[in-house]
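Example (one chain per record):
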Amino acid sequence: LWYISELDAWFNHVNKCGGISLRKGTYNPTTMKPFEQTKGYRFAFIREPIDRFLSGYAYYKYGSDYHTARLPELTIDEAIDAVKRTLTKAPLELEHGLETHVTPFTHPTFHINEMDFIGRFNHYQEDYEKLCEIRGVKPKKLPQKNKSHQKDVLTDKQLERLHIILADDIK
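Predicted structure:
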């Protein structure tokens, strides 16, 4: 988790849920600690699971505003297999970083059920403003940073697989 002094809170950066916009575009936290070492107010932002998966996949296959493609030969099916692998690994064992971007946010690694506030990516600015109100801080305009370059579409079979694998996130 990242400590954001302006909010006096710990930010749980769930990948591909707008965290870079908050961390690098609005605040510049320098202190990072494992969840178990943090005390105080904790918050996270999450994203619709299928959209998050596609963004994580595209981030590795095609790159983003900040990064070139890391796995340009990656297929959607391989990325879905990576999601499935994360469900059987605790603690998470990372092979090439893809797993950190497609791991279900309900995975124990994220401690999502232990957050004091959970915002939604699909109304990021609005939820961020609610967080600021709770923390007694004037909100800022959040920029959009690190956008993935999505190009692929899921087949019905791939979508069905993801609905099964990400069932806890979809609830």
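Caption: The CA atoms of residues 25 and 143 lie 6 Å apart.
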